[in-house]
Amino acid sequence: MTSYLGIDSPAPPINVQHWLRGDPLSNFQLGKIYILDFFATTCGYCRPALTYLEQLQEGYRDMGVEAIAVASREEAATADDARAQVDAWVSKWLPYSKIRIAFDYSGEMDEHWMDASLSFGVPQAFVVDRDGSIAFIGHPDMLEDVLPKVIDGSWRASAEAKNAEKTRIAEGETYAAELVP
């Protein structure tokens, strides 16, 4: 399996069925930086990761940073059941959240973002740079170090970014190979 979504790739579209919190967003606006965080209600670390994501948005809002949480791996009998499950989880754990929270049951967001980047677990963060290109893919814990460099424009061309991307892809390819029977 090959990663075809990585640093410098154009960001795939946002295609979700429901926006559970915040105003709907159909396209990335040039000039803004977006952090998309893929999560699941069954993930133990996703709640603190989303709380941290909200803190990043608040701290960097004046610099054009906006956070979006995407639930795309919710398992339930129906899409309505899955959406209700995510909505209840968000209401319980993030009742006053100011980040946009999206729900996709179609699998399209997973396919175009997670699968395309060899990302297999959640939480997984994607940073979309001001030009609409992917600047970073990785664990949300890394954002504290990476985000200021994305904001000042030094991240994508750096050796640090290239090494992080190479490591991420190698780990994804290894994991993907282990999935094949």
Describe the structure.
- This protein is α/β, with parallel strands linked by helices.
- It has one domain: Glutaredoxin.
- Helix content is 37%, strand content 18%.
- The chain has 5 helices and 6 strands.
- Strands 1-4-3-2-5-6 form a 6-stranded mixed sheet, sandwiched between helices.
- The protein is globular.
- It starts with 17 loop residues before the first strand and ends with a helix.
- The model has no long low-confidence stretch (mean pLDDT 94).
Helices, strands, pairings?
Layout: E1 18-21, E2 33-39, H1 46-60, E3 65-71, H2 79-93, E4 100-103, H3 108-114, E5 124-128, E6 134-138, H4 143-151, H5 159-179
Parallel strand pairs: 2-3, 3-4
Antiparallel strand pairs: 1-4, 2-5, 5-6
Largest sheet: 6 strands, mixed
Low-confidence regions: none
**Helix/strand-derived class?**
alpha/beta
CATH topology, what is it called?
Glutaredoxin
CATH homology group: Glutaredoxin
Instruction: Give the neighbour order of strands across the main sheet.
Output: 1-4-3-2-5-6
CATH class, anyone? Alpha Beta
Number of strands: 6
Shape summary: globular
Strand coverage percent: 15-25%
CATH architectural designation: 3-Layer(aba) Sandwich
Helix content: 25-40%
**In oligomeric terms, what are we looking at?**
single chain
Number of domains: 1
Beginning-to-end CA distance, first to last residue: 13 Å
Write down the overall mean pLDDT. Answer: 94
Give the helix tally.
5
What gyration radius follows from the Cα positions, in whole Å? 16 Å
Query: Which sequence of SSEs, written as H and E, runs from N to C?
Result: EEHEHEHEEHH
